[in-house]
UniProtKB/TrEMBL annotation:
Protein name (database record): NB-ARC domain-containing protein
Keywords, ordered alphabetically: Plant defense, Repeat
Gene3D superfamilies: Ribonuclease Inhibitor, Winged helix-like DNA-binding domain superfamily/Winged helix DNA-binding domain
Alphabetical list of SUPFAM superfamilies matching this protein: L domain-like
Length: 399
């Protein structure tokens, strides 16, 4: 796992969750215990590398970690894996036939097609665009060649590409486990053939603002574990995302027209983390969210029309460890149903810029887990329950 990090250039900002799924895609994360999640093993690997000072410059967002690799450590990783991993810097560069993982730190300078020196690498497993310069990359021919040449590809990361459609031949990647179209502002549709990718674990469609809809057969992507989406849709139909019962992480971000989530959330039988961010038209969460028994992290931020009210009736079945509520101006009273089943599990509660919030629930003072509570910029809040929670043993901060 450490050696694989050499595909990233020096001073590149790494993301723990994406790194873990890249490792998983290449079979670098193994578990001897069938009850242990591969993600947990991967995060343990990441923490072990952190404890050995291989990474630095840490920052946290919504419970995830960003960091960089120390320059000297990066040199060490390169020396270990120079025959398997390579950064492709220009089209004249010669690549050893043993190379399996290739990154493109400057993909905007690539020719339209896959360079000849790469086309003979039949054992290619990873292709990553690492475009931090923000140039758009028109890469239709590049992708078509990848589809025809690299049948054993595990990772295809096309960050900041600018094509409008993926070729239907994308469905031929029988071994593909990681596909990212991060910040492709032009793509309008995904071919339904993408749903043939039965091995796919990770699909990243972050800031694909013009992606009109998800493929109609997305329910057949039975091994998908991490889905990150941006779309102009007003709602997600039932029988789609809600059927992805292998999903562990679901990030729904910057969906400016989205008013409703899918009603069949109870089908997400293994979901651990749900993040709903900057969906300003979102009105409510479905009642079925209460039925996601495995949910341990919920982050909601920048949803200015969301009230978080829930009908009484069915009890909340999840036990959260982390709850983050930010920039939710419609919330007057704390949605107690979110933490009703979490008195023994909640570790972190963060509430920030909820300008209309008047009070916290009294149940905070009786939580056996003594969570860390951080309240920031909530000017109308009566902090009496917070003071009592502190007296009961919770770590609290109010600013």
């Amino acid at each position: 796992c450490f050696a694989y990090c050499s595909i990233f250039p020096k001073d590149y900002q790494l993301d723990d969750i994406e790194l873990v799924y890249l490792w998983m895609a290449n079979g670098l994360v193994q578990s001897s215990n069938e009850n242990q999640e591969l993600e947990d093993v991967g995060f343990r690997y990441f923490k072990e590398l952190c404890s050995r000072c291989f990474f630095q410059d840490f920052s946290e967002y919504y419970g995830n970690v960003k960091c960089k690799m120390h320059d000297l450590i990066h040199d060490l990783a390169l020396s270990i894996t120079q025959n398997e991993c390579s950064m492709f810097l220009d089209s004249t560069q010669q690549i050893a036939k043993s190379v399996r993982h290739v990154s493109f730190p400057h993909p905007e300078s690539l020719p339209k097609d896959v360079p000849k020196s790469l086309q003979n690498l039949e054992s290619m497993r990873t292709i990553c665009f690492l475009n931090e310069r923000r140039e758009r990359i028109r890469s239709e021919m590049f992708i078509k060649t990848c589809c025809s040449k690299f049948q054993y590809l595990r990772v295809l990361d096309l960050t900041r590409s600018s094509f409008e459609e993926l070729p239907a031949s994308i469905g031929n990647f029988k071994h593909l486990k990681y596909l990212s179209l991060w910040m492709n502002f032009n793509i309008k549709r995904l071919p339904n053939s993408i749903c043939k990718l039965q091995s796919l674990q990770t699909l990243i469609l972050y800031r694909c603002w013009n992606l009109r809809e998800l493929p109609k057969d997305i329910r057949y992507m039975i091994n998908l574990r991490f889905l990150w989406i941006t779309t102009p849709q007003m709602y997600f139909p039932t029988g789609g995302i809600g059927c992805l019962n292998s999903l562990r992480f679901l990030f729904i971000t910057e969906c400016s027209h989205l008013e409703y989530l899918f009603e069949d959330m109870q089908g997400l039988k293994n979901l651990r983390k749900l993040a709903v961010l900057d969906c300003e038209s979102l009105i409510s969460l479905p009642q079925s969210i209460k039925c996601i028994t495995t949910l341990d992290t919920l982050c909601i931020d920048g949803c200015e029309n969301l009230e978080l009210r829930m009908e009484e009736g069915e009890e909340t079945q999840f036990s959260l460890q982390r709850l983050e509520l930010r920039r939710l101006p419609k919330i007057l009273d704390f949605p107690e149903w979110l933490i009703r089943g979490s008195t023994n599990s909640l570790k972190v509660l963060e509430v920030e810029q909820c300008n209309s919030l008047r009070e916290l629930p009294n149940c905070l003072q009786n939580m056996a887990s003594h969570p860390e509570i951080r309240i920031i910029d909530c000017p109308k809040l009566n902090n009496n329950p917070l003071q009592k929670a502190e007296e009961a043993g919770s770590s609290t901060s109010l600013s």
